[in-house]
Amino acid sequence: FLYFIVRRKLRMPPNTPGVASDNRLDNEVLNEEPLETLPPRDDSTAENSALRRFVPNIAMMCQARGRVYSMWGGDVAVLFVDMSGYSKVAAAMARHGPHALFAAVNGYFDRIIDVTHDHGGDVVTFAGDAMVAVWWVEDNPRASARLAARCALEIQRRCGTHDVPEAPGSSTMLTLRVHIGLSFGPVTVDVLHDPAVQNMQQAFPFVGGQACSDIRFAVDAAASGETACTARFLEACGGADAFDVVPVEPESPEHPPLVKLLAMHAPLIELAPGVRQLSSVERADDVEGVFLHPRFVELLKTSGPGAAIAELRYLAVLFIKKAADVPVATWFGQVLPALDRQNCSIVQILDDDKGVHIVAAHNLFVTDSSDVAGEAIRTCAALLELDAGVCVGASCGTVFCGLVGSARAARWDITGNTCVRACRIMQHAEAVGSGCGLDDSVFRESRDISRLTVLSSGVSLKGWAAPSDVYTLSDNFDPAAQHLYAPAAAPCAAVNSAAVRVARAVVESPDPVQACIVSGEPGSGKKTVFAAALRDAGFTMLLHETRSNDPSMAIAHTLAAWFQRSDDPVVRTAAVTLQEAMARGHSVRAHQRCLELVTAVLASGAHVAVIVTNAA
Question: Is residue 23 part of a domain?
């Protein structure tokens, strides 16, 4: 980590507007060899050529020699294209598999990206149904802004709608449209690079700054088929006389002034030959590989060039916001190793209206855990232990994963309701002053919910079908509480019916205190069968792992550690007194207190199943 920070240097054009220099760094940095003297990029290998579309040109503005990167800053024009009608198309395509959805979206992106590239734009990122591109022409901000404006209006003219069959071969069409935002202003570009990572890519391009923050206000102000821009973008183009415009009433005093663009009268500025712009940035040899996840590179190799790659995977998605007032590189330098140790792959790092944030996921490229929700909980705990200033939202569910874009610009991306929920959960956690929020999908699916406690009950958030509880990490977690048991396989029907009868007999008994013990031959499926049946019957299942060297009454320690977090004060008090008796070595008293705890749990009306398994 120390090596990573020491090697960082800052390089940006002298007197770059809106970008503050760091006087802690040597002034000689500004006198380094200019980028245009770098050797031409070698496209002699098919691999380099195939990977080029996955790395934006603007990231190469940070490249020095080899794999050493420096910060770059400047004023750029930003274009944000957002699709309308995506949710309806996604719902229709979900029945036909991930390839159908990505084929529909990429067919539209292919047209949009062609127009963007024809106007000299550089595609920076994708986010589900959205795309961000930037323009920069050296010493000519007006040329940058007018190219972006002409591109936006041309996208509306040539690509305003895109019809998608409701089903393969269907004559019924669903229609995608776009609304577009434009902004102009200072950005900082950096390549966040750590060669020590083991489980993901080494380098991540990052573009952030005022223009990125303003762009969301512009795109939100544009209805389907419209284009809106900030007042600063309009000024960069040469003023309102260059367009037919309609003013937009600001929703809040904090929002930047906005207008809608109807038509453009000003001509594009003719550029002299050799003028540096993003479309002509040169690249050194073999740099793209460090920007791509190794497993994704393998996937590209096995799939072949031009393949349409799409998957439907069960993921734990984490939305990690930078909540500390520190440089992005410093913050990311702490968060990245923690995610790498947890094998939680970063999809991208962004700066938008939600601030600087990371989108990451467990099981993104390989199914390496049967407890994805538990992995998410442990990753959240690891991030909070860093004390690095994070706010995390997590959700589990089926996610569309695939190659988004075209042959000219593409990224590996994830999309779906799970990603949206993770974002909403993070925003809720931040609003209530918590550093972590997890939705009920994590609670339901995890074997490790002893680490969770309710943060907010009955929360209604945008896009949710019904109110739901939001959870956070428990402050008084005790590893002895172990994990909840989640069955890995569905039991056979005959045995399952017997298990259901037993569960129902306990639940529906007129006796308010009812308990039973289920035993059987090793390997007969007791845990799997009854865990599935009892979960359906509304039981909480607690796992106690036994070992040959366990002390007497080890299970009592598990029960005490778990029920100290009960909402019932009688149960909670019984658990505390049991824990105290065991801590003092009073075995007889501990035995009595354990029976009292079990009785209190049963009397409370709780339905609890303790699954005992051999951990040896």
Answer: no
Last residue of one domain, picked from the residues 477, 505, 520: 477
In this structure, are 509 and 563 located in the same domain?
Answer: yes
Name which of 276, 215, 218, 272 is nearest 245 in CA terms.
218
Tokens of 418: 């799970």
Looking up tokens 């995390």 gives: 392
The first and second tokens of residue 289, run together, are 């590989």
Q: What is the pLDDT of residues 202-247, one digit of tens each?
A: 999 999 999 999 998 999 999 999 999 999 999 999 998 889 999 9
Beta-bridge partners for 192: 204
Among 261, 291, 321, residue at a domain's last position: 291
User: Is residue 379 within 8 Å of 362, Cβ to Cβ?
Assistant: yes
Cα–Cα distance, 419 to 317 (Å, whole number): 6
Which single residue is written with the structure tokens 């821009």?
229
Contact status, residue 473 vs residue 381, Cβ threshold 8 Å: yes
Task: Say whether both 419 and 456 belong to one domain.
Answer: yes
Which amino acid type is present at position 535?
R
Which neighbouring-strand residues pair with 188? 73, 208
**3 state DSSP class of 7:** coil
Number of folded domains in the chain? Answer: 3
Residues 431 and 336 in one domain: yes
Cβ 122 vs Cβ 74: under 8 Å: no
Same domain, 457 and 567: no
Kindly state whether residues 503 and 463 are assigned to the same domain.
no
pLDDT in tens, 280-298: 877 655 566 688 888 888 8
Beta-bridged to residue 125, according to DSSP, are 132
- State whether 463 and 511 are in the same domain: no
Q: Is residue 275 part of a domain?
A: yes
Show the domain range for 576: 493-614
* Cα–Cα distance, 564 to 545 (Å, whole number): 19
Q: What are phi and psi of 470, to 5 degrees?
A: -115, 135
Distance CA 125, CA 350 (A): 9
pLDDT tens per residue, range 529-582 = 666 667 666 777 777 777 767 777 788 888 888 888 777 899 999 999 998 888
Q: Is the dihedral of CA 400, 405, 407, 411 positive or negative?
A: negative
